[in-house]
Amino acid sequence: MARDHGVIGSAAPEAARQSARVPWLLIAAPTVVLLLFFALPNALLLSASFVKSEAQQLTNEVTLDNYAFLFSWSLYIRAFIRTFIVGLSVGLLDVVLGYPLAYFLVRTRSRWKGLLIALALAPLLASVVVRTYGWYIILNRFGVANDLLLGLGLIEERIPFMPSTGAIIIGLAHALLPYSVLTIMGSLQGLNTNLELAAMSLGASRTRTFLNVLLPLSFPGIAGGFILAFSIAISAYATPAILGGPATQMMATAIYGFMTQLLDWSIGAALAVILVVCAMTLAYAAARLGAREGAL
After folding, report:
1. Stretch 15-25: mean pLDDT, rounded?
2. How many domains in the chain?
3. N or C: which end of the chain has fewer CB atoms below 10 A?
4. Which DSSP string do the residues of 101-130 spell out, in sequence order?
5. What is the pTM of this model?
């Protein structure tokens, strides 16, 4: 009997050690993937941005000239500014458009609710290139938009809607809207509707209930939808290249030009580092703001 107690007593610590290993084993694979395909490439990118490039080859000479070059040319400064204007505009536009749609999809009791959700997310089934060329057909000088305005007599001459920053914002906002809708829907589904009923039973109007109860509680979802749309928008290449072209350059198209056309990998790497650092900083700030507002 004493021997049995000894066996049980020795097995308990072993079982505890095995259960303690489980969380580490679960995160081991994602950690390795992040290190190999995110941390390591970004570390190599960072190192390449601080060396000189000559004859399309990286040298061992450490320099800050790559960053000085980028900030000394107005062309690239305008690309920086345009990129973040587009990112902020797309994020705000998707949140403003996505919130009412997400609210409707979560609260509707229609028997067609599943179909409506599928239709709202249907744009994800098509390639972003296909959707962008759809906007190209609509917005070009001889496209559908100009034909419609001419037919209605609202304009006398065709308007060049593209290439332009506005066309890029429209194309990216359409492409990224489902991401914001999904994020906000997740936040709204987790809310207790009894809180709204309690507020209205105490005399609050629907507008005041929305502003003081529903909106603050769903703020983490709003912040998440904004961060997702913003992060993807500032790093997008296909939509700015098609709807903006060389005349409306953004950071992603500038990086592509340095890496594949000019073959100046050092300056391209420096531009990519600036993009990654700025994106991560703004995303972190927005996430902190969303977490703080959600906790209030």
Report:
1. 62
2. 1
3. N
4. HHHHHHH---TTHHHHHHHHHGGGGS-HHH
5. 0.80
